Amino acid sequence: MVTLTTMQLKEIILIDTGEKVGTIIDLEIDVDQGIITHLIIGAKNKVIGLFGKQEEVIIPWSHIVTVGTDVILIKNMSYDTRI
After folding, report:
1. Could you tell me which residue ranges the PRC-barrel domain spans (predicted)?
2. Which of 1, 29, 46, 56 gives 82 a disulfide partner, CB atoms 3.0 to 4.6 angstroms apart?
């Protein structure tokens, strides 16, 4: 079993480019089916720079390739963002 706390320690990596996307700050769960539907990732806004706002990136669970010991690999970076 994997806990949210353990998942929050893992870096999210885009498998196609090796780009570090960010880390998990929350999950969206379908309570009727009891499944995780999306990961909510905290990522720095690249345009604003070091002291910029943190942007929320929403990644569908279907885009997860694998959950490793230190990283979570994702594919197809078509995602939703919320600031």
Report:
1. 10-77
2. 56
Other CB atoms within 10 A of residue 22 CB: 19
Rounded Cα distance between 66 and 44, Å, is 23
pTM above 0.90, yes or no: no
pLDDT digits (tens, 9 = 90+) for 25-62: 999 999 999 999 999 998 755 544 455 566 788 999 99
State the residue range of the domain holding 70.
4-82
- In terms of residues, how long is the chain? 83
**Exposed, middle or buried by CB within 10 Å (0-12, 13-18, 19+), for 62?**
exposed
Q: What is the count of structural domains for the chain?
A: 1
CA 55/CA 35 separation, integer angstroms: 24
Q: What is the CATH number of the domain that holds 66?
A: 2.30.30.240
pLDDT at 82 over 90: no
